[in-house]
Polygalacturonase family (Quillaja saponaria), 479 residues
Amino acid sequence: MQYYHISPLASCIFFSCLFLSTQARWHSHTKHKHTHSHKSSKILEPPSPSPEPREPYDQPVPEPEPEPASPPFNGNFYNATGVLDLRIFGAVGDGITDDTKALKVAWDTACQSDSAAIILAPRGFSFMIQSTIFTGPCQSGIVLKVDGTLMPPDGPESWPKNNSKHQWLVFYRINEMSIEGGGVIDGRGKKWWDLPCKPHKGIHGKTPRGPCDSPIAIRFFMSSNLTVQGLKIKNSPQFHFRFDNCKNVNIDSIYITAPALSPNTDGIHIENTNDVKIYNTVVSNGDDCVSIGSGCYDVDIKNITCGPGHGISIGSLGNHNSQACVTNITVRDSVIKVSDNGVRIKTWQGGSGAVSRVTFSNIHMDSVRNPIIIDQFYCLSKDCTNQTSAVFVSDIFYTNIKGTYDVRSPPMHFACSDSVPCTNITLSDVELLPALGDMVLDPYCWNAYGDLQTLTIPPVSCLLEGTPPSIFDNDIDHC
Ligand SMILES: *[C@@H]1O[C@H](CO)[C@@H](O)[C@H](O)[C@H]1NC(C)=O
Ligand SMILES: *[C@@H]1O[C@H](CO)[C@@H](O)[C@H](O)[C@H]1NC(C)=O
Ligand SMILES: *[C@@H]1O[C@H](CO)[C@@H](O)[C@H](O)[C@H]1NC(C)=O
Ligand SMILES: *[C@@H]1O[C@H](CO)[C@@H](O)[C@H](O)[C@H]1NC(C)=O
Ligand SMILES: *[C@@H]1O[C@H](CO)[C@@H](O)[C@H](O)[C@H]1NC(C)=O
Ligand SMILES: *[C@@H]1O[C@H](CO)[C@@H](O)[C@H](O)[C@H]1NC(C)=O
Ligand SMILES: *[C@@H]1O[C@H](CO)[C@@H](O)[C@H](O)[C@H]1NC(C)=O
């Protein structure tokens, strides 16, 4: 998560837009209900699936085999199993036709259903959907089952001018929902990554200043009891998933892929979200594998494989002198390979709040730069000044972190603020060897207090002992 941070102003604008379009949608919603609540007698023959174009930069993702055409529509929106097939709502699924309306009507139908409804994007079909906000609350839980392909319009030129360029599919105020299936969500990001406003895409490979919007593929806002399971999602124009103000989020067995050089394509970003479980997931992309923003707590990440990419990140926190509170985060039994960072905590000078009770355990590193890093001087330009306040970092436990590091950076780096030291950093069973070449850089510490429970490889002798006196003198915000 490096280039775009939503300012409070931008999020206010977002919310008011969201609210307005929510209102608008409830009106159109009522209309759709009439047109679609009668029973259609038309038999819709699904078209034969069109072959999907494959772009050369893609990593191979197995495409589902096309299936023989399913039995003709029986006249009900649901069959006995409560499945709402998008084709019943007029979707074509040829990858070209705009199927947004069908998905909206299916959503409205599902949302008003008294029993849990399944919206199905069937196997062998590719549904092109425009940027849309799906709003709740709904009468009961909704399952969006993607067995085929869902995709947005192809790049900024085909994005309707009046659609948000910040996001593609948004789920807002949903109480219980699952996205699952054996299909693919294809963000078609390439044309967005190549925009001349992107990093190093300017004249002579420069990074132009100013905004450069690209849509986040899947966003959840103010929602709870969410599951994302078994899906493949690839090539998002920007973040693949972002959760804001959500509760009880369960992500299991998903595959996220984008090229290593695709800008800002974080796998999963969470913000102001708690009770999050991310299990059995594989992410290779061009930015953070998982990024954990302000206001997150009770996050458990287990059996994730990250890389190539930028590793797992808590932060950046405290930007623009903001307060950030993050606590009770665990990352365990995972692999991070060929990444710019392993497990990172990054905060800006001048913030406030705290990051505490973070455990990184049982993590295998493979050719990672900065496998273990705390950076309280995070800055994206050259003109950040040191300030007296900082997000307080404490109670960070690293245990059983083994593997190899890229010798361009030290294997351990604890850079803490002058006025707000990091405290209670514990290292146990850390063994990091150079992936190639000789160990050149020693672990780095600045104003970092903590203990070694076991000897480490390489040895760490720079952690300060005990508790710094300044944490009693300074005005530290414990959240
Ligand atoms: C309902 O539709 C789903 C998906 O098309 C299908 O798998 C299931 O067999 C159907 N059930 C009945 C009873 O037709
Ligand atoms: C965007 O513009 C199209 C055509 O001009 C119109 O049909 C559509 O309703 C507009 N959408 C929104 C969200 O305003
Ligand atoms: C989430 O689910 C739990 C139990 O399934 C339920 O008690 C709770 O009300 C749900 N959350 C919300 C916000 O509805
Ligand atoms: C870890 O996740 C991978 C990828 O989903 C899965 O294949 C593997 O079985 C998981 N391992 C365990 C121990 O659950
Ligand atoms: C920490 O988070 C885990 C879930 O990841 C939860 O089970 C546990 O109760 C939390 N601990 C505290 C002290 O809240
Ligand atoms: C900020 O403080 C750190 C640690 O004292 C120091 O290394 C760095 O040069 C300072 N940066 C600036 C811009 O003064
Ligand atoms: C240090 O942090 C660990 C967790 O890493 C915690 O269990 C312990 O209580 C902390 N010690 C103090 C003195 O706060």
